[in-house]
Amino acid sequence: MRKIEVTLDKVREIKFSINAMGELEDRFNKSVPELFALGSPGIRVMVAMMRIGLKYGGMKIPGKSIEDQELFIGDLVQEHWVNEGNSINELMDSVKDSLQEAGLIPKEEEVEDEDKQNPDMDTDE
Q1: 3-class state of residue 119 by DSSP
Q2: Integer Cα distance of 84 and 104 in angstroms
Q3: Between these two residues, 78 and 35, which has the higher pLDDT value?
Q4: 9 is a domain residue
């Protein structure tokens, strides 16, 4: 399991464990690699990843439903990350790096190597 520290309203830990990724897969009915297969995932996936990662990092997230919790996390990221001049892409790159280090999604060079080994396979679709 790998953790990331991110400064939002305060320094928070985002942790991605097998159980965290299982929760993400349940949320979107897709495997974690599928969520990243076409590049960076969308905003909804990013917010869900943040909610799950922060939850497993020890944050008590207000809200009775997942939707309420994700709205809270979206507002938190907007107010304390985006409005501070930070890029969502930078945040997602950190999340992606963490998932790659944990072995939960392949590293980009592994995908490139696989493409070179299987040149007849079209992986761009």
Answers
A1: coil
A2: 30
A3: 78
A4: yes
Residue 72 lies in a domain: yes
| Domain that includes residue 35, residue range | 2-117
Task: Please compute the mean of the pLDDT values over residues 44-71 and round it to a whole number.
Answer: 94
Q: CA 48 to CA 81: how far, in whole Å?
A: 16
Tokens of 43: 């905003």
Q: Quick one: which of 13, 25, 27 has its CA closest to 55? A: 13
- Decide: 80 and 7 in contact? Cβ < 8 Å: yes
Domain membership flag for residue 122: no
Q: Are 51 and 69 in contact (CB under 8 A)?
A: yes
Residue 97 resides in a domain: yes
| Stated pTM of the model | 0.79
Residue 116 confidence (pLDDT) above 60: no
Positive/negative CA dihedral, 72, 62, 28, 81: positive
Q: Identity (one letter) of the amino acid at 100?
A: Q
| 3-state SS string for 32-60 | HHHHHCCCCCCHHHHHHHHHHHHHHCCCC
Q: How many domains does the chain have?
A: 1
